[in-house]
Amino acid sequence: MSEMVLHCFPESGGCYKAALMLALTGTPWRGVWVDYFKAGQTRTAEWRGAHSVMGEVPVLEDGGLVLTQSGVILHHLAERTGQFGASGKEEAREILRWILFDNHKFTSYLATWRFLLGWAKDPDPAVVAFFRARVDAAFAVADRQLETRPFITGDRPTIADVSMSGYVHYPDSEWPLDVARRYPAVAAWIGRIRALPGWQAPYNLLPGPRTPPHA
């Protein structure tokens, strides 16, 4: 398999989802750092024209194929590698169900809350509290699901687990939710993901200089 190229930056959980899938599947790849914070690179007309009309990362290049949106990238990599995908139509629907939940609620709320805590300038406390409450609600759903199974859809990890891993492996200080005490099933699941061969933490896996919280 030829080397893939991932346009990314280290603080992005969406980028981490794609990079983690590449690492877990042993896929050859290299990262191209995107200056999101200082230059606002993804928001330029040049970026949108060359890479993604949505003005976002991750962007994955697989030969002549260019893919955006982490959910699409994860599905492509599962098909390409034969790993972490569905074993049949029923499981495929269940994987899609949880990836949609992740994109709309689990990762979405957690990413926004983490950004407000660490990188936003003078965020409104009411807005921060609003997103914190949404994070708690999403984690409660995941905790109930994981009380009866080791991974989000069953006995083995799939791209649904990779998708929901977007932000939970960043340092606890960036999203102080006290997961071990409040959501023990989620905490145990996080441990199982970290035990998978090839797993690496976001700041070890993604290339480029970091912009620490409150920098």
From TrEMBL:
Name under which the protein is recorded: Glutathione S-transferase
Q: Which InterPro entries match?
A: Glutathione-S-Trfase_C-like, Glutathione-S-Trfase_C_sf, Glutathione_S-Trfase, Glutathione_S-Trfase_N, Thioredoxin-like_sf
Q: What is the lineage of its organism?
A: Bacteria, Pseudomonadati, Pseudomonadota, Alphaproteobacteria, Acetobacterales
Q: Where is the signal peptide?
A: none
GST N-terminal domain span: 2-85
Organism annotation: Neoroseomonas oryzicola
**Where does the GST C-terminal domain lie?**
88-213
